[in-house]
Amino acid sequence: MTGINYNMIPLFVALPLTVSFFIILFGNRVRWISDVLCTLSTLALCLLSLYAVGVVNGHGTITYKVGGWFPPVGICLVLDSLSCFMLVIVNSITMIVTIYAISYMERYTAKNKFYALFLLMLAGMNGVIITGDMFNLFVFLEIGSIASYGLVAFGTEEEELEASFKYMIMGSIAGLLILLGIGLLYSYTSTLNMADIARVVSEKNDSKLIVFVSVLFLVGFGLKGALFPFHWWLPDAHSSAPAPISAMLSGLLIKALGVYALIRILFSVLNATSFLPVFMVLGTMSMVIGVFLAVVQWDFKRLLAYSSISQVGYIMLGVGLGTPLGIMGGLFHLFNHSIFKSLLFLNSGAVDYATGTRDLKELGGLRERMPVSASTSLVASMSIAGLPPFNGFWSKLIIIIACVNAGHPVYAFWAVLASIMTLTVFMKVQKYVFFSELKEKFKVIKEVPFLMQFSMVLLALICFFGGLLLVPAVSGDFLQSAADAITNGKEYAQIVFQSLR
Fold first, then answer.
1. In which residue ranges of the chain is pLDDT below 70?
2. Which residue among 129, 292, 419, 429 has the highest number of C-beta atoms inside a 10 angstrom radius?
3. SS3 189
4. Whole-angstrom distance, CA of residue 138 vs CA of residue 127
């Protein structure tokens, strides 16, 4: 494996941290510098993540020893197909959201502080994805979480401060549960390296402790990922934040800090496959309860927040099946949800930006004045509802087929019902926001600025062409290899140790 630039791995954390520091230093002196620095850094990270996919596909899992110290004494960063899959999702959508934020955040003061917190949150997400050390996973988890608390409260209005406080309390409880689990694991294994923990756990046979630790992680990361019944903080936080942050929270943060971390630890480190039925039950409950709560909402962003709970349920159901097809469907839906939910939150931000309201009852007929926002919202709505040929259809279809193939037709029924209800929810959105009669007070509004339109169109195109990930030539190198990393979680320790040699 000569010729590989291992130093690219820490750049996923070092670059956003460094740029965040320089934005704080120079952002007030030159007005446009924070826009340029944040956009260029997220573009660089997006390209770097795509390059990492090629490297891992060509050479296998690669590792970086921080300070040159070998684990378990030293800290290592691990780049495998699953982490590459997540890095591409996180950094590509972050780049698109950054472009949107250039115009959207003009209405706020202290824009440079927004970008600094934004990049800290990105550094935390990337760190969680690439770390091979349990305590550092907790550190990066807190970096991303604390930055997101500040971003939710960025507008400093009463509603935003209250939502941020609730979010912080629930996030702190989650962090304590996760830290307790890490402490118990350390006392049991005498190591914090994830591969080393996996090796020790496989050699010992204290199932009671592992079950207890797994429950702590399930609750802790379930809170971070807004999995039912740990989701109560999400509607307030996601609806109160500025639109770019709502897109990041729902599209990326709950996936990276919650879903990904839970899957990585339970499959690759603890091999707690006995929890798969729990995944299926909680996923189905999230799927159904989330969409029924969304139906009765009239605040555009709160409706989207509740639908996020529902869509996370599809991911957990697919992964919980434990079959190769189910896991692939779950990961594919994770990718798709990151795209169409980010787009929907950007759409809601565009509507709020132009009209000053998120109340569906006060809106109507905006397609006449905002054709780009209306068209991209329609694409995202059809995608989240699972209508062909959009990307959401294919991932939901795979999950439903996987349920039937695994002998769980009841779960397939609930998945179909939730999809029908999701269609109902977003037909309501389209009717009340874009397709009813244009209100008199909105006849003078105009479409949002070009950069906001550009971001929405780009995400809409991905929604339309996202189904191409099922093409074997594409899915084999990206989606299928990520699914294989979960399916073969028992081999994580062996693969990492081989890479470290």
1. 1-5, 205-206, 472-476, 501
2. 129
3. helix
4. 10
Helices (H), 27-110: 33-59, 81-104
446's CB contacts (< 8 A; 6+ apart) are: 354, 369, 370
pLDDT for res 1 = 45
Which positions ≥6 away from 236 have C-beta within 8 Å?
162, 163, 166, 167
- As given in the structure block, the two tokens for residue 78 are 């691990």
Residue 330 CB contacts under 8 Å (≥ 6 apart), including other chains: 314, 315, 316, 317, 318, 319, 320, 321, 399
Burial 176-205 (b: 16+ CB within 10 A, else e): ebbbebbeebeebbebbbbbbbbbbbeeee
- Which residues, 6 or more positions from 222, have their beta carbon under 8 angstroms from its beta carbon? 230, 258, 262, 282
Q: Where are the beta strands (DSSP E) in 44-180?
A: 62-65, 76-79
Q: Residues 335, 299, 358, CA angle at the centre, nearest 5°?
A: 95
C-alpha distances (whole Å) from 337 to each of 307, 310, 332, 459 are 10, 11, 9, 11
What is the distance of C-alpha 127 from the center of its chain? 14
Token pair belonging to 35: 């826009």
Distance CA 143, CA 338 (A): 21
Q: What per-residue confidence (pLDDT) applies to 336?
A: 92
What confidence score (pLDDT) does residue 360 get?
87
pLDDT value at residue 343: 94
The predicted structure's pLDDT at residue 475: 63
Q: How far, in Å, CA of 499 to CA of 63, rounded?
A: 6
Residues near 138 by beta carbon (within 8 Å), at least 6 away in sequence:
175, 178, 179, 182
- Dihedral of CA atoms 135, 139, 145, 149 in degrees, nearest 10, equals 140
Q: How far is CA 255 from CA 220, 225, 250, 262, 273, in A?
A: 13, 6, 8, 10, 20
pLDDT of residue 476: 61
Which residue(s) pair with 133 in the sheet?
193
Q: How far apart are CA 68 and CA 76, in angstroms?
A: 9
Distance CA(163)–CA(29), nearest Å, equals 32
Alpha-carbon distance of 173 to 166, in angstroms, equals 11
Report the 3 state secondary structure along 269-280. Answer: HCCCHHHHHHHH
Q: Where are the domains of the chain?
A: 1-271+491-501, 281-470
Helix (H) or strand (E) holding 409: helix 409-429
**Alpha carbon distance 161, 156 (integer Å):** 6
Residue 298, SS3 per DSSP: coil
